[in-house]
Amino acid sequence: QQQQQQLKATEWSTSLTLSPNNHNFPVGDLTTSQPNIASADLAGIMTGIYGSSPGCLCTFPNSPQCQGMEGKQQKLGQIATTIARGSNANRGYSGTYNYFDPDNFFSTSALIFSGVPFLQEQARFVIERSGDHLCIGPIEKQYKCAYGQLPHHFVGTTPTYLALSGATQTGPNTFWTKSALQYAKNSGNIQWLKSYMPTLRAAAAFCFDLIDRDLHLLLAPGSLMIDVFIRGNYTADSNAMMVGFLQEFADAEEAVGNTTGAMALRKMSYDMAAATRQYLWDGVDHFVTQVNPDNMNCTAKKDCRDFVDYDSNTIAVAHNVTGSIDDAKKVLHRMDDGIQKCVAAQGGGPQWVSEIYYGKADTTSGNTGDSATAMARIAWFDAKARHLVGDADSFTAQLAVMQRDLLQYTWMHERYACNGQMMVNRTAAYFEYPSAVAMLLREIRYGIVVDFNHTTVNPIKKEPFSYHIGNVNVDYNPADVSIIDVPLFSPYVEIRLHHVAANAEYVATLHSRSKNSAFGGKLHVKSEKLASGNDIITVPVNTLMELSSVNDHKDVVIHVALQK
Asked: Is the pTM value of this prediction over 0.90?
């Protein structure tokens, strides 16, 4: 009785908000109080994010629908290639996980682009799982792998360092590192980046150590991201990729305060771009497949091994390796109007692998499964290339094919065919195309790129829009007021708005996201005319913060208003 008298009633309350809808994605976090992007684009991004990638996660204990992981009581950061399908809940490439060549770069990017902290942390968990098995120290001794090499994938819970074809690729180290940087940039988690940089440096060094410091070219052990294609020596794919990757890693080094290291990486990138043009540019309209050490002048003699690869050439254009917009346009013109009739511009799937077919003698073990197909990863680089040269029509046409199928079917097959249709004999419910659609809508159509030292808004079409998804909120109107509310990695970043009126005056104003904080400061800035023909205004956020005496850079909303 005395014990009963000591008991006190406890009161609590909870609430639940239900947001029923007829789409294949949740809408509870979407704004209803302000405009958003066109409904088809909103559905494309949200379906591309939620329809596939979260269902591929195997990050929960005792994963019963993740073959080879059953009974494991600890949480493991692994992600499958497809959702669990059918009555037996099987998955594509059953029992294998964490491909970063570049497959899971796309699925983790989709999770990260959701802007939802829980999903972003799942992506980080997957990234760290592969990072835990980077081939250094005890891992190198246990698995007899090449120093600094990242696992190509996991079989069950066991890492393997070679591709399914048996090849060694530069892709896993490159795209896994890009995935980690993607997480850091879009979550604003500077502390994680600082603590994880030693691992990222070790992974990146696996590729950097392949660079000949005299020739300024990377000597590749295999293909970058199509593992069955036999490529080696000074290849266009790995060298073009490294030009952009060096710049991105330099941004990360700069973000953690290593400005000296960043400068060295940028110089390496410039030197590699020049060397790639010198040795691999055919002199007319594309980069050749590879140059061998015993025949470095093959482009002049026209006897290089060359399949006119569309993956390496779109990467080269996207990373501005051509050095001129005119040459970049020549590359894309050859693709679009050349002899290969399966390219997207001629009715094929976005985007085809090569002009010349890789036969049995050109592939590992005669595996020609990827020789006549289109891949989302190439479509992604193709879109970045179109963005660079301002080819909005070609980008829009390619995106329309993928976006149409995504909205009609939700789940997509792994590849497209020459007829512009998905290949039904390739892996079903694969995440790559849906993830690519989400990424292309945000990064290219709406031109929103969150980086360490700058945030860019550069839509491929010069049209105002409002974008409110997750932790990215942008109202873009270069002829009036643009409002930028995105994760700011540090107080020392820039906001770059493209397509503004040349020589017009703008006022940048700092606002607080918090209702309980009121502050503001103004900075008058003018736009600058770029050599590319675009007009851009750059707002130095650190100056705004100094004017406003604001300490918490994560509470910042920038208004950029045209002074009429």
From this structure: yes
DSSP symbol at 151: P
Q: How far is CA 18 from CA 15, 27, 32, 474, in A?
A: 10, 9, 14, 26
556 bridge partner residues: 512
| Residue 356 neighbours by CB under 8 Å, 6+ apart | 306, 307, 308
Q: Helix or strand or coil: residue 491?
A: coil
Query: For the segment 120-161, what is each residue's pLDDT rounded down to a tens digit?
Result: 999 999 999 999 999 999 999 999 999 999 999 999 999 999
Q: How far apart, in whole angstroms, are the C-alpha atoms of residue 288 and residue 281?
A: 6
- Cα distances from 405 to residues 25, 231, 410, in angstroms, run 16, 33, 7
Residue 88: which of 61, 63, 71, 64 has the closest Cα?
A: 64
pLDDT over threshold 90, residue 298: yes
Give per-residue pLDDT as tens, 476-504.
998 888 999 888 877 777 888 888 877 77
Q: Which residues contact 292 (CB under 8 A, 6 or more apart)?
A: 233, 234, 298, 305
Distance between CA atoms of 123 and 131, rounded to whole angstroms?
12
**Residue that wins the pLDDT comparison between 538 and 231:** 231
Q: Can you say whether residue 22 is alpha, beta or left, with left for phi > 0 and alpha for psi between -120 and 50 degrees?
A: alpha
